[in-house]
Amino acid sequence: MEQKADNALEAHLAKKKTGGDESQTSLVEMGPRFVLNPIRIFRGAFGGQALFHNAEFVTPNAVRALDRREKGQSYATRKDAQKKRKIRNEELVLPEDPLDSVFR
């Protein structure tokens, strides 16, 4: 990350400090690059007594299955609403008007 001086005094002090370079370069940490989310910790290398168990862990397959189920539910809800709308429109038939033929 390069920083330039805001005023002449800061530029002079930075130039004096760095030996002639006007801009000052520094490193900035962006954040963690690798995060471990432990699920279980066993006493042995690959088995044994479970020392730690993360009860809040949800597998990626379970997350994908839930997304698919929700999408399927929205489709079913939409189709159900279409059926109800069709039935409602069929039931809303106006009765025949007796005065309809008077002015023809």
Structural account:
By secondary structure, the protein is of the alpha+beta class. The protein has a domain at 56-91. It has helices at 8-18, 60-91; strands at residues 2-3, 24-25, 40-42, 50-53. The protein has a two-stranded antiparallel sheet. It has a two-stranded antiparallel ribbon with strand order 3-4. β3 (40-42) and β4 (50-53) form a beta hairpin. It is flat and about 105 Å long.
Secondary structure layout plus pairing:
Layout: E1 2-3, H1 8-18, E2 24-25, E3 40-42, E4 50-53, H2 60-91
Antiparallel strand pairs: 1-2, 3-4
Task: Walk across the major sheet and give the strand order.
Answer: 1-2
Number of helices: 2
Coarse morphology:
flat
Measured between the Cα atoms of the first and last residue, the distance is 86 Å
Low-confidence stretches: none
Query: Averaging pLDDT over every residue, what do you get?
Result: 84
**Beta fraction:** 5-15%
List key phrases describing it.
single chain; alpha+beta; two-stranded antiparallel sheet; 4 strands; 11% strand
Concise synopsis of the structure shown:
This protein has a domain at 56-91. Helices cover 41% and strands 11% of the residues.
